[in-house]
Amino acid sequence: MLPTLADHAETARAVLPPEVWDYYAAGSGEETTLQEAERSWGSYRLRPRVLRDVSVVDLTTELLGVRVASPFVVAPMAFHGLAHADAECATIQGAGDAGCLTVVSTRASRTLEDIGGASTGPWWFQAYLMRDRGLTEALTQRAAAAGARAVVLTVDTPYVGRKNKVSGVRIAVPDDQYLVNLAQHLLPGAVGRESAEQDPSMTPDVIGRLAEISGLPVVVKGVLRGDEALRCVEAGAAGVVVSNHGGRQLDRAVPAAHVLPDVLDAVGGRVPVLVDGGIRGGTDALVALALGADAVLVGRPVLWALAAGGAPSVRVALDALADDLRHVLAVAGATRPADLDATMVVPAPR
Length: 350
Fold this sequence. Notes:
This is 4-hydroxymandelate oxidase. Its cofactor is FMN. By secondary structure, the chain is of the alpha/beta class. The protein has one domain: TIM Barrel. 40% of the residues lie in helices and 13% in strands. An eight-stranded parallel beta barrel has the order 4-5-6-7-8-9-10-11, surrounded by eight helices. Strands 1-12 form a two-stranded antiparallel ribbon. The protein has a two-stranded antiparallel sheet with strand order 2-3. It is globular and about 60 Å long.
C-alpha cells in the first residue's frame, strides 16, 4: 500500500530537525489563517450529477499554453535543500514524473540552471520584486533561459510576516543554499543582502515590466480581493493566484476558499485563476474547480513528501492527489474538470 499524504507528513516530522519542521509548518501571528485554511474547503457542500457516463475521467489541464496531466501545481516554497539533499532538483523531477507543473521559488536551494536541467516537466519561476529591481529582472531572464514558461510575481510580501510561535527559533541555511541564485548578482556584505530584500514600494507597473524583460507571461500571486485581481489583469497580468501565502503573511487574512468566487467574478474569464491554500485532497480540489478555478496549488504536502523520500515520494503524493480527484469527479458525475460548475457547490448549512 502506497503512503498517504498523512504518512509523508508523519515521516517528515520524524526525520527533519525540529527547527526545520517548524520553519516549514509555521504560520504568521497566532496562526489563525493557517488553521482556517484546510477547514475552509469544508465550508462547501456538493450537489453531484447522476446518470452520466463517467467510465473514463481525464484530468488533463492547460495553463497558459502548457498541457499538464492534472490541475495540481506545486506551489513555490523556499529552501527545499533543508528537507532533502537533492532539494528542488528532486521536487521538480518528482512533479514532472507525475505530469504536474512546478513553481520554483526565488529562494530555491539550487541554481535555476540546475533545476531547469533536472526538470522532467514544465515549470514557472516565482519572483519577488527586490529593492534592487535589477536583481529581479536578472533572475527572471535567467529563469526564462533555463526553461521557465512563466513568471509568478508574489505581491503579498512587502515585508515578511512575523511567525510568533517560532520567533525565537532560527534555522541555519547552509551558505551553498542561501541566496544561491542571487550570489552572482549581489555586492558583498550587508549592502548586497539588503538589496535583495522585498521592495515595499511595488505597484502594478512592475507586471508589464517583468513581462517585457523576461519575454514570459506574468502571473500575480497573493490576491484576495476581486478589485485587486482586476487591477492586476488591467496592468497586464496573464493569470492570478488567489492565495494568503499559506497563512505565513497577514494573520486573520481571509481563507482563499472564501474569496475565490469574488476574484472569479471580477476577472470574468479574461485570464486563468488558480487558488492556493489548504488543498489536501481530491474533494478540496473539486470544490475549487467547481467554483471556477483553473488549477490548485499544493505546498506543504509536497515538502513533506520530499523529506520522506525525495523525488519518488513527491510523485507518489501528486499521483495520490490526482487519483483522489479522478475518483471524486466520477462520483460527482463529471469526466473532466471542465464539466464542473458553480451549481454543483453550495455553502454548508450552519
